[in-house]
Amino acid sequence: TRVLPPPPPPPGAPRPLCGACGALPAWAARLRATGFLISECCFPAFKAKTGKAKRVRTIFTSDQLARLEREFARQQYMVGTERCLLASSLHLTEEQVKVWFQNRRIKWRKQTLEQQQAKLAKMGLATPQR
Question: Count of domains in the chain?
Fold first, then answer.
């Protein structure tokens, strides 16, 4: 079957418009869109941001995670020379170790709160969650 192009918009009606080339974008025509739209050819202009590039997510090895968890169990705050030595021994940056500890403390607090709420619920003293 052959797909017919959409009929042209009536005179005076707003039509999809590409800011760069002034063309009716193919996707807008397929959707029979009306109004002023921006074509796919213009999207990269909106994606380009100035400033810092997005940080790549660190993927920790199981050995690194095991060591980080052991250190966290020993002490929840890792600062100064200790953090530097730990980062060096794990082949990570100090920033990566610092952020891991920050995130782990948040996870620990959340787990502790959930455990406390479960205990209260068992005793029939549960309070509604915020």
Answer: 1
